Every structure is written in structure tokens, then in C-alpha cells.
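W.,

You were right to be curious about this one. When I first looked at the sequence I had no strong expectations either way, so I just let the prediction run and decided to look at it fresh. Below is the sequence, 181 residues in total, followed by the output.
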Amino acid sequence: AAQFWSMASLASDKQHELVKGELIEMPPPNRVNSILAAFLVYALRKHIEEAEIEGYVLGADGGYTLSEMDVRVPDVSFIFKSRLPNPADREAIIAPDIAVEVISPSETPRLVHEKTALYLQAGTSLVWNIYPEDKIVEVWTSGDSNTLRMQMLDSTHTLTGGIILPKFSVAIDLIFKQIIP
């Protein structure tokens, strides 16, 4: 992971992730994904400010070293300040409290599931996978004995912060209204 951060800083015009020890160049997000991610950054940031919660909301340029072999960059993330005392220490092995991935059509279900499982196994409490084309959100948590639990939400539901941000909520239809012309 340390070598990844050295190489990534040299190639700062492109985004990379370290996946099972392999350096992977990430394609730039499309506009729709970027609009949805920006909306969620705003909604989370507004909530933690209003609720006076000590935490960081990061966009797609804030990576996490999940293990020596995996560095991932969620589209949006939240982490309590108490868990990240030195934000400049990129090599610290730590997972976000909430990871948000806006899923591109090119991402296979297998890759999405592997990434989701990696976040949860690394200590992330809540993963939101946003599917713009289908206008659904998968909410993933880990249960007893490291089992993964998923709840699928559509436009009739509300996305909440679960046990991490219990008073956070945003209507799913409001999320997807951001991309309707």
C-alpha cells in the first residue's frame, strides 16, 4: 500500500486503486455519476454540520488503505474524526464508516459485490451502491458471523444513515431527481 501511494502521487492526473495488489487505472466518472455523488456529498455534509457531528465527508479523491493489498476510492465516504485523527496519513489501514459507490454500466455485478464485501470486511458499517440507470440503491451492512445483508430501495423509499448517522435521511426520488432533465 505504501508503494501505491508513492506511485499514485506521481501520476496525479489519473486516478488509481490498488486491487488485490494490482495497480488499476480508474476511468473518469461520467457526469451523471458525478452529479449524484456531489449531491450526496452535499446532503451528508449539511447533515453533519447541522447535527454537529465530528466527521469528514470525502469525495472521489479521498482514498482508503483497506489492507496492504487494497486501496479503494469510494465516490463518497463518511468517517468519524475520532477514527481518523491524522487525515494526512494515507497509509493508515482504515475503512470509512460509510462508503458510497455510484455504479457505472461498465461495472459487473461480480466486481460491485467484491468491492462491497471488501469495504464491509475492512470495517465499513454501511455501503450504499447507487444505480443511476435503474434508479435504485442497495444498502449493505454486515450481520452476525460476517454475513452480508442487503436491502434494495427504490423511489418509494428513504435512504438513511443507519446506526452510523441515525438522523440522516434523504428520499430516493430526490437523489434521482438530480439527473432528470
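Here's what jumped out at me. The two ends are 41 Å apart (CA to CA). And, maybe more interesting for your project: The domain at 29-177 is CATH 3.90.1570.10 (tt1808, chain A).

Coffee later to discuss?

I.
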